[in-house]
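User: For my dataset I need records formatted as: sequence, then structure tokens, nothing else. Please produce one.
Assistant:
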Amino acid sequence: MIYKEIDNMEFSTNGYLRNSSDVDKPNNIICGNKITMKGVDFKVLGVDNRGYTKVMYPGFDYTFPGASYVIETPLKNK
């Protein structure tokens, strides 16, 4: 697993990309405000540190304005 630890939080650098070692985790925390869903095979719910929430779809890029990190939760079979 590739993680970066900041303020006692573990950040995934590969999130739910299909070849990521984190793909089966119940949640991933991504450092920063830019998320790519290129290479992800299912929908993911993203919630940033400011509470902004969006459902992200495979194949697209997303920005969470002003966010420091984004918590991702897979929406498999939903």
